[in-house]
Design goal:
Layout (H helix, E strand, L loop, with lengths): L2 H14 L3 H9 L18 E6 L4 E6 L2 H14 L1 H6 L3 H14 L3 E8 L12 E6 L3 E5 L2 H7 L4 E5 L9 E5 L2 E8 L3 E3 L2 H10 L7 E9 H4 L3 E3 L9 E8 L4
Parallel strand pairs: 5-6, 8-10, 9-11, 10-12
Antiparallel strand pairs: 1-2, 3-4, 3-12, 6-7, 7-8
Helix pairs in contact: 2-3, 3-5
């Protein structure tokens, strides 16, 4: 076992030793500089102290983006059911991070076509394999980045109101876009769908597959608004079930 692997395992155990309140504070960006950092506390390695103002003060941050995602995953596993019961912006952020990390691996997801509840297709779910991305890239304009980038890079936006989707990657002739939502419904504007499809320069044999990712507790009742938005040639839209422990 390498030193890096041992350090990773030790850090994982420290994260698992966090209390629910500690994990919530870390996820929310609330750091108590003078509390809960004693020798018997698990935060060592999770946070970094940075001197400021000529060592007259100090700031506390999470050690890395990977640590932030690990803590969010740990926190989410403890509050999985609450994410559906109390749909807040923080809940959306956690689910978005979870979706992003899940796409770095190949997982099987339950999906259905984006139709209304009265359509027979609403009850006809099927399974697809998605993910297996090799890296992530933070971008302001993900559509431009994925169009000109390489396969299997997951692009996600620094713009919280990024049009149509939260993250996207391409593989061959197919673009895979994901919109994470915590509600029982989600607006879908035809103009946005058309605009993204147009910017991706979809030609013969090319596809844009748009997945609305919802918590498994909401999946059986989730609908779009409109329930079956019209889409241009080459665009297909689905509901995707986000289950725990992907």
């Amino acid at each position: 076992t390498s030193q890096a692997e041992e350090n990773g395992q030790e850090l994982e155990q420290k994260i698992k030793a966090l209390t629910q309140t500690q994990a919530q504070n870390l996820v929310s960006g609330l750091f108590a500089i003078h509390a809960n950092f004693g020798a018997d506390q698990p935060q060592g390695g999770i946070t970094i102290f940075t001197p400021e103002n000529n060592y007259k003060s100090v700031s506390v941050t999470l050690a890395s983006e990977s640590v932030r995602n690990w803590v969010r995953t740990f926190f989410m596993n403890n509050i999985w059911s609450d994410l559906a019961l109390y749909p807040t912006h923080t809940a959306w952020q956690i689910l978005e991070s979870y979706m992003m990390e899940a796409l770095m691996r190949t997982n099987q997801y339950k999906v259905r076509r984006c139709v209304g509840k009265s359509d027979a297709g609403y009850l006809t779910a099927f399974h697809v394999q998605l993910g297996g991305c090799t890296s992530k890239s933070l971008q302001l304009d993900c559509t431009n980045a994925v169009l000109n980038g390489i396969d299997d890079v997951l692009y996600y936006s620094s713009d919280t109101s990024h049009p149509l989707y939260d993250m996207i990657f391409k593989r061959g002739t197919v673009f895979y876009a994901f919109q994470v939502t915590i509600g029982s419904s989600h607006d879908s504007k035809r103009t946005l769908i058309n605009a993204v499809a147009s910017r991706l320069l979809l030609g013969p044999g090319q596809e844009l597959r748009l997945y609305y990712a919802v918590h498994e507790a909401k999946f059986d009742s989730f609908v779009k608004n409109p329930v079956q938005p019209p889409s241009p040639q080459g665009v297909s839209i689905y509901h995707l079930c986000l289950r725990q422990s992907l």
